[in-house]
């Protein structure tokens, strides 16, 4: 019975993500735009000690991220991954679409994965692994604001 409940819960979570996800075209790589010119960049470090750079271009999200760095408060970063490298994050084969980033106190387990695990399993992302391409590394922490590339 427990397995059935777990499977139903996972299915429900995946369905919820699918219905709340942005259209597939919006997850494409972010072209340099006026919004990117006003972007801020933040280091995200997870339990593995890996560092990942997030680009934010929404002034409210930038303000919130700066406050998280300043106070050391832990919020889970949630965003939709794009399966391409970004100039500001060249060591990884994916980046997060800045238009989809939010911060939360809690997130469902199906979007949780470390930075290296996500990179190593990109070919599986979007199915049962990271449904809707949403990623929420539970152990990730914003550690600092970093310079633009």
Itemize the secondary structure elements and their pairings.
Blueprint: H1 2-20, H2 34-37, E1 40-45, E2 51-56, H3 59-71, E3 76-82, E4 95-96, E5 102-104, H4 115-120, E6 125-126, E7 129-131, E8 134-135, E9 141-146
Parallel strand pairs: 6-7
Antiparallel strand pairs: 1-2, 1-9, 3-4, 3-5, 3-8
Notes on the protein architecture:
The protein has 149 residues and is of the alpha+beta class. The protein has one domain. Strands 3, 4, 5 and 8 form a 4-stranded antiparallel sheet that branches. It has a 3-stranded antiparallel sheet with strand order 2-1-9, with helices on one face. A two-stranded parallel sheet has the order 6-7. Strand 1 and strand 2 form a beta hairpin. The longest helix has 19 residues. The N terminus is likely disordered.
Would you summarize the structure shown here?
The chain has 149 residues and is α+β, with helices and mostly antiparallel strands. Helix content is 28%, strand content 25%. Strand 1 (40-45) and strand 2 form a beta hairpin.
Q: Which class of secondary structure composition applies to the elements?
A: alpha+beta
Give a short account of the largest sheet.
4 strands, antiparallel
Q: Structurally, how many domains make up the residues?
A: 1
Oligomerization status of the protein chains: single chain
> How would you spell out the order of helices and strands?
HHEEHEEEHEEEE
State the helix count.
4
What's the overall average pLDDT, rounded? 81
Flag low-confidence runs.
1-34
The first-to-last residue Cα distance is 51 Å
Overall outline: globular
Relative strand content = 15-25%
Helical content class: 25-40%
| Rg result | 15 Å
Query: How many β-strands, per DSSP?
Result: 9
